[in-house]
């Protein structure tokens, strides 16, 4: 069906606005953290898969790190295993870790890989165990929370080989310890560490919030690290936003050019943030 003149002009405007961004980011790596909440909405999942596929087709190298908290919780409930959290972290005993590995490395990872491939991408699913990608150690905690880990080291060789071959790595945040034990690691943390090691152009943290808000509830679209520190000090940034901001600051200070905190509920949020002048989230730079 032919486009009318006004619609055609809008399409042309979108394409011309995107062009300088495509040229600037071609050949660069962009790490995108995708939350488990967004995967439960089929329309959002399809929109995300199209965004990632388009990024690769225009010469950008997306690396996807995903969570899967809701899916893990639902499966534990089916098995009659109660979920318990300490300071926002899921207590992960041996039985829970089996479910975490099954859901993150199996169900969620493969569903996301399939969604991207269905849109014409060439996605490959990984966990931190593959190619020694994520070395982990037990996360220190006053209370024993089981097999919850932190990143000890990242070996990006498997990622760089996949990128060079035209593939899109899709990574589940499960690491492996020196003793071979699996560890459940926060997906934001893994995405930040991978972005730092890869010297990524951007780290995009998709969430179920609009971004960083001021005390009046207005979106703060552009911040530097000093401004972020001030917002933490005066309590504007607090609570559940603090770990995400800590991840963003660590990535920027480790060489990532910019971190975006984006509302993943917005259709095509990744493309809007990457390829438009206004964007839809909060940009944090050094």
How would you describe this protein?
The relative contact order is 0.15. The longest helix is centred in the middle third of the chain and has 25 residues, at about 95-120. The mean pLDDT is about 90. A hairpin with a 2-residue loop joins strand 3 and strand 4. The chain has helices at about 5-25, 35-40, 40-55, 70-80, 95-120, 155-165, 185-200, 225-235, 240-255, 270-275; strands spanning about 30-35, 60-65, 85, 90, 125, 135-140, 150-155, 170, 175, 180-185, 200-205, 220-225, 260-265, 280-285. The radius of gyration is 19 Å and the shape is globular. Helix 4 (about 70-80) crosses helix 5 (about 95-120). The protein has ten helices and 14 strands. By secondary structure, it is of the alpha/beta class.
